[in-house]
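TL;DR need structure tokens for one chain.
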Amino acid sequence: MDLFAILLLGMIQALTEWLPLSSKTMSALAYTMLGGKPEDILPMLIYLHAGTLLAAAIYFRKEILEMAKGLSFHSANRLLEGKAGFLASSIFFTGLVGVPILAAEKYFLPSLDGSALLSLMGAGLVFTGFLLTTQNKNRWRHEEAATWKDGVLTGALQGLSVLPGVSRAGTTTAALIWRGFDAKSAFRLSFLLSIPTVLLAELLIWISESGSWSMPASDGLALAASSFAFGYLTIDALIRIAQRMNVAWLAFLFGIMMLVFGLIGIG
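>> reply
TL;DR here they are.
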């Protein structure tokens, strides 16, 4: 893989991971347009997400260390309190909703041609846009007020993000704003939740699928390094941008474009 493709894919992954768009959809689409092989799309996404995962972990290192210290000096009941409780509950309900959908996807998606898959991804982005336009306007809660109860809705909606085109950041941000969190807190909690979510997903996919990958490890590591660099450099700025702009219209725009391309047979 050439340097231009590595840098471009790393930048796309970073920008779409921090905005409420579907990073897996946008990165896969860009990779296909660059002439990438279909069988390399999954490992490409895994490596790209590994880079932004590391960037998020470093960015939120203080919160992670504080939660780790709190859990180490208190009983297991602490798992249901504060941000730790929010993360634990979110992960549980993500699995409850997402795993059955993922199992169904493995059965149905291989039978879809390129146009049908493009249409499906476009529909997912339109759905994300719809979620982002139906938010609760009563935003008053700060991220420190998060509890396991907030994780129920957030995790359930995050489980839907295994569908093509549905954004993990978009669904979780929408859920948190519905729960009354201000925009900044919603985005920060969403990005914090991405760390255990992506880590667990990556481990599961790596264990089950890595034996069949044909992508050279050198290409994969270069993709991870690229998405890490762009991700770490942009995360703070994009959190600020995302809380000020209406990203729903971006989701609608990309979603409708992909729907149209899929319906007219481009893909």
